[in-house]
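Researcher: Structure for this, please.
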Amino acid sequence: MKKHIESDALSKPSPITIRMRPVQSRQNPTIKSLRRAFSHGELTEDGCCAIESVKIVEEAIRSKLRFQAVVFSESGAASKTVEKLLAQLPADVETLVVPDDVFKSAVDTESPQGVAALVFPREFRISELTAPGSLVVVAAGIQDPGNLGTIVRSAEAFGASGIILGEQTVSRFNAKAIRASAGSLFRLPSVASKLSDAVAELRKNGFRLVGTSSHKGTPLNEAWLSGPVALFIGSEGSGLPQSILAQMDELVTIPHSDKLESLNAGVAASILLYEAARQRRQAGASA
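Model: Predicted structure, token format:
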């Protein structure tokens, strides 16, 4: 009798297993929304962005984002991380488990980790980024999602109040940008705006506009980056548009070997942000 009871207990589905609804079709509405969001790098009709991997889903939970749905592949659902992830999510979040091939058809990575989700990103206005004395980053035509993610990650690390994404800049909801930001895009305020509108708003709030250049301008070690400053980072290939360059209060350059045409945009922005943070700490200590 004892063996029979133990056998029944072992075969009883766990609460986690019960919570995950099995889906077989690639045409399931949630799977279709996930696929579209990943392929276009934009929000769904409901206002969700798509994320993928255990680490990024954990970062979204840690950042207290609201989840619409979580999708596991069958192999992903067998991992030890499932219970930990689901225990941190409200019970009303839709949770699906799908065949591995269906999961792979929806996500954008070659070797998926078996978990993806639809989350609601926070929305901000430029006015929320421009508190007195703030450091703001303006992405002016950053087209590589890895560079954008790196810039956002460094901006959070070095105390920027937010990032403004001008026209011709890759979407902040691009899955590669989110991965490269290591979750910073969930937390650092970001706003998509026309550059002309951003310049006007920053001017109105007393910001100095500092542009970056590969070859001309004030050497970084001589530049003043304290106080309310907006750092304008141009595209990887052509830098800042001429119309924006003409409106800068100062151009800054990072001295480097003349064997190189220029630095990677993500690397250059990170160096500038580090120097800005150093100067601001120093100014705070002096005060």
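Researcher: Any notable elements?
Model: The CA atoms of residues 107 and 195 lie 32 Å apart. Confidence is low (pLDDT under 50) at residues 1-14.
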